[in-house]
Design a protein that fits this description.
520 residues; TIM Barrel; Double Stranded RNA Binding Domain; 3 domains; three-stranded antiparallel sheet; 18 helices; 39% helix
Length: 520
């Protein structure tokens, strides 16, 4: 069976979503998570387009993948420059990725109105760019922008653009529904014709403006495509891209396509929620396969039936995608997820212990308050260790105070934190300033503890996110704080929730410190 390649563009197309702004650290964390899941190709961004992507690719040179190949994205060279002189092409090569994906104009309307060059000149741009890159990069893919609209308008010319890319050495011709308005039947008919004309791989890149991106991607595979491009949770510009969280289980479980292992598929929900947390978005309860409501049953007839045979009202077993069955009011799910996490953390505990049920109960209570542990794995590991008596208390808080003082209009406020702790019976009282109240509190906490625990000098706060949880309550709303920390060797996430942002931040900071100290 021929393998279907999954090409993820969350870090590039997904970052163009409204309300999404990935930092470099965000992108690196998602990169490693996608590789852990087993995605074949991960598009990191456009290195010639902005400083953030250039910095990301610089950091990503240390990336040692276990399953994935990193791709850099760019355009055909400028018509006014030789390919060797174009700064954007130089930036692509400087990224040093094993894969480069180049997009080119396929619709004659765009060639004339956007590029403002002749149709022949556009073919030259495609050929020259790919030929130049193929001599310097192992793998080059060609994204045929606006392919389907172009094919409907001028099929002869769109095929010439693909021929130019193939003759230049492209390994895959990716047909793009860039405006996202095509219907599944059209996609299937056109992809079937194209796949019969070329002897290299055909791919599909679908946008979701007509709510058909997943269906269009599946239809393309049915018609012969062997690469699907999309994003986690369907993130992307306008209405988003093909949602890989739906595409992957449909391919694997419905069509029996070789795209991911069944063992990796069990981490699908974890992956979806991880990206949602890093993007600082709300989880979509009704998202197919992995949403909280995807296998939730409320109606009496349904509940009675699924308790005898789940297949009566469930199209797959939820455990296959890392989800679980829920009966609303009396929730039956969750224990298997905890057991799996215990295995992931390599904790030596009795998995049959009633304390597992205790964790499930506590977890549900915490989640009702706003805690979420995707992206905050360290806090979740601490919760498990506390329940099983594997946790050690390193200090006791006596109290802290944070002062924010603005002395003059136009100047930044001054932030100072004082803190009093007891460590091993010894009272410690310190103060520190910072570039914000949380930074000042973090500095004061470290200052108080470092003489007792010098390994804390290795720890740095890498990222800090705040999300308002309770809509409609204004400044009295609950907030969730997500902190990422690192020590040069490892990175970990922690979480805190409170109506008071400083208290939520304190919870996450303490978890970060305790996690480091428990690791040694």
């Amino acid at each position: 069976m021929r393998k279907i390649e999954i090409y993820d563009t969350t870090l590039r197309d997904g970052s163009q979503s409204e309300d999404v702004s990935f930092s470099v650290e965000d992108k690196l964390r998602i990169l490693y998570k996608l590789d852990e899941f087993g995605i074949q190709y991960i598009e990191g961004g456009w290195p010639g387009a902005n400083p953030k992507d250039a910095e990301f690719f610089d950091h990503a040179k240390k990336f040692k993948p276990s399953a994935s190949a990193l791709a850099a994205f760019g355009a055909t060279h400028r018509a006014s420059l030789k390919v060797s002189e174009d700064p954007s092409i130089k930036a692509l090569l400087a990224a040093e990725t094993p894969v480069v994906t180049i997009f080119g104009k396929t619709w004659d309307f765009h060639v004339r109105e956007a590029l403002r060059v002749s149709l022949q000149r556009n073919l030259d741009l495609i050929y020259d760019t790919i030929t130049y890159l193929k001599k310097r990069v192992p793998t080059v893919f060609y994204d045929a922008e606006h392919f389907f609209d172009g094919y409907k308008a001028n099929p002869e010319y769109t095929i010439k653009t693909l021929e130019a890319a193939q003759s230049a050495g492209a390994e895959c011709l990716v047909l793009c529904d860039t405006n996202g308005g095509c219907m599944p039947g059209d996609i299937k008919d056109i992809v079937k014709k194209i796949s019969g004309m070329f002897d290299i791989s055909i791919g599909i890149h679908a946008h979701n403006d007509a709510e058909c991106a997943v269906a269009n991607s599946i239809m393309a595979v049915e018609a012969g495509a062997t690469q699907i491009q999309g994003t986690i949770n369907g993130l992307g510009e306008r209405c988003g891209n093909a949602n890989l969280i739906s595409v992957i289980p449909n391919l694997k479980l419905k069509l029996n396509k070789n795209c991911i292992t069944l063992n990796k598929l069990k981490k699908l929900k974890d992956l979806s929620r991880y990206v949602t947390e890093i993007a600082n978005l709300r989880h979509f309860k009704r998202q197919p396969f992995i949403g909280d409501s995807a296998f939730a049953h409320k109606g009496g007839v349904h509940v009675s039936a699924i308790q005898r045979h789940p297949e009566t009202y469930e199209h797959i077993r939820p455990e296959k995608v890392g989800n679980y069955q829920r009966v609303l009011v009396s929730d039956l799910g969750g224990k298997s997820n905890i057991i799996r996490k215990i295995k992931d953390f390599k904790l030596k505990v009795d998995q049959d212990s009633p304390k597992v049920t205790q964790i499930v109960t506590e977890l549900k209570q915490l989640e009702s308050q706003g805690f979420q542990y995707e992206g905050a794995e360290a806090s979740f590991e601490l919760l498990i260790k506390k329940t099983f008596g594997l946790h050690r208390k390193f200090f006791d808080l006596i109290g802290f105070r944070v002062i924010v003082e603005k002395r003059k209009e136009g100047e930044e406020p001054l932030c100072e934190a004082t803190i009093m702790l007891k460590v091993g019976g010894k009272r410690q009282h310190t103060a520190a300033d910072g570039n914000g109240p949380v930074n000042a509190l973090d500095n004061a906490l470290r200052k108080a503890l470092e003489q007792f625990y010098p390994q804390l000098k290795e720890v740095e706060l890498i990222d800090y996110k705040v999300r308002v949880l309770t809509a409609g309550k204004g400044t009295s709303a609950n907030v969730r704080v997500l902190i990422e920390s690192g020590d040069g060797k490892h990175k970990w996430g922690t979480v805190g929730v409170s109506e008071n942002i400083i208290e939520a931040s304190w919870q996450a900071l303490v978890d970060s410190i305790e996690y480091k100290l428990l690791r040694g």
